[in-house]
Structure formats: structure tokens, C-alpha cells
Specification:
- The chain is α/β, with parallel strands linked by helices and 419 residues long.
- Among the domains are: 104 residues, Dna Ligase, domain 1; 62 residues, ATPase, nucleotide binding domain (Nucleotidyltransferase, domain 5), CATH 3.30.420.40.
- 36% of the residues lie in helices and 28% in strands.
- It is built from twelve helices and 19 strands.
């Protein structure tokens, strides 16, 4: 295989652990997907690690599949982070410009970044995952996207802080070490999905991306090119399967097969006369069940998920007010009728989000289920594989010669979410 830089994305989901290895031959060509792996999740519950050994085995199996296909080892990976403990909040930092002539320099931007984090008080069991600069203010001039080189006295930075459970992050790191690799950086799931499927125009108009996973549903809201909000809801596709299993009094395996083969999100489009022979799915099952009844169960749970999303939009004043509409990713997005139901509940345009075109074996990842994994490698490439986690302990001890390098990393990360 030709030489080139490699990026590895590992999406640790509640239902599946997916890995993608991509090769960069030149900066002028899109990444080439050269290896993929996908195995059922073990040791994950609602996005959180509950069994380190089980997660390690599943991660190792997924990465081995991708490594064999790519012919390249996954020594370091960019990892998705989910779970209901993910939270975001706005933060403000204010400093005096250091130079006598008032020109904003790299060290000013580093100091204001420090100040944002210094002002933020987090519990001991939480850790900053991302500091995403939204805009700057220099004296009386507002909404500045890049103040470097401008002149003023007072520099303010408005940022969005994304944090997660320290225990969860440590457990993921421990699992990866047991799997023979290391986490180069962490990226919260909805940001990775957004990078894979959203275009700049959608972020500018105002769009909510909804990733319907196994045990959780994550969302991220963009407007005017800025990330406004993100959140993780404690309900997902596995809850639909559980509802079907209870409603039909059958096993989880049969319920999942029924959902995949006969599922839909719009009950009125299914005849009440249509029936499903459970014996055709599992020889140990017998009897006929109403397909309409199955679809009613699915519709009720999806309505609940979209209602939760609508509540999140209402809380930030964007209910029914996003011209870019809704973009659905994750396995739940593939349920027939999910797009129509999202339109009805959220009162917004809706569509399924597919990853942006890349090279290589794209046909195997051109699926909303791989949106997060593809987004991880795209973000890794856009920041040269450097860390997107900016914690105070890394910023505070920065030496003068690395300040410019550090600020460049922040700028490259923030530019993924700014116009």
C-alpha cells in the first residue's frame, strides 16, 4: 500500500463499536477509507462504560477488523464520547491586551483561553472535553471571529464549554490501553456526526442534528455557523426493541428482527390486516402478530424521542425556528417513516444525513450509522490529529515557545464551527 498519513476513528456506541481507518495521500485529495470494523457493543450502558474488560475486547475486535483490511496498525485513535452526563455551558473570559501598542498577539489569545477555564467551576468528578470559541469582543467591537492582529485594550472571549464525567473518560482510556491502543483525543458524539454530514450552509441557516443511537439520542444545534447547544438524551433505538419485546411477549433477538424487517414509524400507513409470522423469524416462536400493532409501538417511542428533542429546542428558544431543519443520523434514522415523523413532531424540514463523499471503500461507510466514525477522522485531519481537549492543566503550564502552536490548535478546532 502507498505511504501516507493515517487517521483512525473509533465510535464507541451503546449498540455497536465502529472503527474507520483512512489514509491521506495528499492535502489536495479527499481521505481514502482503507479499513472498517464493526462489532456489537459489550460493557456499555447508556453511553457509559460499565465493564472495562468487555469494552476492551469489543474495541480490540473492531480495530482488528479495520487493521486487517487497511494493513495498518491503529496505534492511536480519535474516540467518540457519549453518555447522559455530557453537558455544555457558556463561559466568558476577559483580559487586558498585553502589548503596549494594543495589538492582539498569540499570548493574549492563550491568556483569554486560560481565563475562560479559570472562571469556570466544575465539580471534581467532571472534566472539560472541549472549549469551543464562539466569538470575541475587543473593547466595543463585538462578534469578532479572529482578533489576532487587531488593536484594543480589553479582549473578551465567549466560548462554549463541553464537559463530561472524569470517571467515564478514564474508563474509556483504560479500555483502550487494554485493547492495545491509545486515545489521541476525545470528541463528543454529536460534534463528530455534524462534521461528517452537515455543510457550512446548514450550520449558517440553523440546523439540529439528531443521532439516534442504541441507548441514547444525542443532538447538536447550529446557527449562524456557531454551535449553540448539544445534549444527550437517555433513550434510543434499543428502547424501541425492548418495547416490541414486551408488546409481543417475545425475546429481544426476535423483537430486533421484527423491527428491522417490518418496522415503520407511521402507523397509519400500515394496514391493520397485515400480520407477521413469528415462526418465519425464529423456529422456536409461533403465532401471528399484527404488523400495525408493532408499528404503533415504534411510533409511540419515536414520538417520545422527538418530543424530548423539541423540549431541548424550546429551552434554547429555537422550537420550530431552524430553517436548515433536522438531520437524522444513527441506526434509528433508517427506520421507514422516521423523517416524516420528525417533520410532524418538530415542525421542521427533515432529512437523513449521509457522510460526506470520501475515497476508498466508501460504499461500506455511506450510511448514517457510520456518521460519527467518519466525523472523527475528518476532525482529526482538520486539526492535524492534535488534541481537541483543552483543559486548564494543559493550558496553564504552556511554555512561551508553544503558545502560538497551542492557539493555532484552538483556532483550527473553532473554525470547524464558525462561518
Amino acid at each position: 500500500m502507498s505511504k501516507g498519513h493515517y487517521y483512525v476513528g473509533l465510535d464507541i456506541g451503546s449498540s455497536n463499536i465502529r472503527s474507520v481507518i483512512a489514509q491521506e495521500l495528499s492535502s489536495d485529495e479527499p481521505l481514502r477509507v482503507v479499513g472498517i470494523g464493526s462489532v456489537p457493543s459489550e460493557g456499555i450502558r447508556r453511553g457509559a462504560v460499565v465493564n472495562v474488560d468487555a469494552v476492551a475486547k469489543a474495541c480490540n475486535a473492531s480495530l482488528e477488523q479495520a487493521e486487517r483490511m487497511a494493513g495498518h496498525p491503529a496505534e492511536t485513535v480519535v474516540v467518540s464520547v457519549s453518555g447522559t452526563e455530557i453537558a455544555c455551558q457558556n463561559a466568558l473570559g476577559v483580559i487586558a491586551v498585553g502589548r503596549a501598542d494594543g495589538e492582539v498577539a498569540y499570548d493574549d489569545m492563550a491568556r483569554v483561553l486560560e481565563e475562560v477555564q479559570a472562571r469556570l467551576t466544575l465539580p471534581l468528578n467532571r472534566e472539560i472535553i472541549h472549549v469551543i470559541p464562539k466569538d470575541y469582543r475587543l473593547d466595543d467591537q463585538k462578534n469578532i471571529k479572529d482578533p489576532l492582529g487587531m488593536h484594543g485594550v480589553r479582549l473578551e472571549m465567549n466560548a462554549l464549554i463541553v464537559s463530561g464525567s472524569s470517571v467515564h473518560l478514564k474508563n474509556i482510556s483504560r479500555s483502550l490501553e487494554q485493547a492495545g491502543t491509545n486515545a489521541d483525543s476525545f470528541v463528543v458524539e454529536p460534534l463528530a456526526s455534524a462534521e461528517a454530514v452537515l455543510h457550512d450552509k446548514q450550520k449558517e441557516l440553523g440546523t439540529v442534528i439528531i443521532n439516534i443511537g442504541g441507548s441514547t439520542t444525542s443532538l447538536a444545534v447550529f446557527e449562524d455557523g456557531d454551535l449553540l447547544h448539544l445534549g444527550v438524551l437517555p433513550v434510543g433505538g434499543a428502547h424501541i426493541t425492548n418495547d416490541i419485546a414486551i408488546g409481543l411477549r417475545t425475546s429481544i433477538e426476535v423483537a430486533e428482527a421484527v423491527k428491522l424487517q417490518y418496522g415503520s414509524a407511521i402507523a397509519r400507513e400500515v394496514s391493520k390486516k397485515d400480520e407477521i409470522d413469528l415462526g418465519m423469524i425464529d423456529s422456536q416462536e409461533e403465532g401471528m402478530v399484527s404488523q400495525h400493532h408493532v408499528v404503533e409501538i415504534i411510533e409511540a417511542r419515536l414520538e417520545e424521542i422527538f418530543s424530548f428533542v423539541n423540549t431541548e429546542l424550546k429551552n434554547i428558544g429555537r422550537e420550530g425556528l431552524l430553517p436548515g431543519g433536522v438531520v437524522l443520523t444513527g441506526g434509528g434514522a433508517l427506520l421507514p417513516g422516521a423523517v416524516e415523523l420528525a417533520k410532524n413532531i418538530l415542525r421542521l424540514p427533515a432529512q437523513i444525513g449521509y457522510p460526506k463523499p470520501l475515497g476508498g471503500i466508501l460504499d461500506q461507510v455511506d450510511n448514517p450509522q457510520f456518521a460519527t466514525a467518519i466525523g472523527l477522522i475528518l476532525l482529526s485531519q482538520s486539526t492535524d490529529g492534535e488534541h481537541k481537549t483543552f483543559s486548564s492543566r494543559k493550558i496553564m503550564g504552556a511554555l512561551p515557545e508553544v503558545v502560538q502552536h497551542m492557539v493555532n490548535r484552538v483556532k483550527r478546532w473553532s473554525q470547524r464551527f464558525l462561518p
